[in-house]
Amino acid sequence: MDSEVRHIRQDGQPLLEDFLCEAVSVPDGVRTAVLDDADAVYDLVQRDIRAIYPSCYEPTIVEAFCRLHSRDAIATDIGGGKICVLEADGNIVATGTLDGNHVTRVFVLPELRGCGYGSAIMDELERIASRSHSSVAIDSSAPAEQFYLHRGYRITGSGEWVIEAEDGMQAATLVYKTMEKHLG
Fold this sequence. Notes:
alpha+beta, Aminopeptidase, about 35% helix
């Protein structure tokens, strides 16, 4: 992140994220996750979902996202070589999954959003996808839609995820945007 960039709140004060970005060192780099990373990736994903998604989705949908991104699902994708992680100061601060040309599960520690870590993960996922694909696709959550549009993705349609009532939670339907970016 350019250290001269400052995001300003309505009251004229800089956002806390700007100071946090400066406190975290330059990323150690993006690498393929290993099974020993499963707990850290799971914790990061769950923290991000629980911190960000309640402002956009009802509780049933938030809980469904948490179940979708379970520890087992993450371990399975790590075992398949599909997950990348970004480390800074020896800690995993961002993650993303690539299945063919489909990007999923892109998350950044909530307190480090806006520091460029999501872009670093996406750069690597797109680079990997470009080896064998001319485009990359993503199903965008509401909180991430502007991020993907800013990266050159275009909306190609929409999808629907019907969530059945479970464990005292009401049924819900999530409508999401499908997006694509041409590579190369």
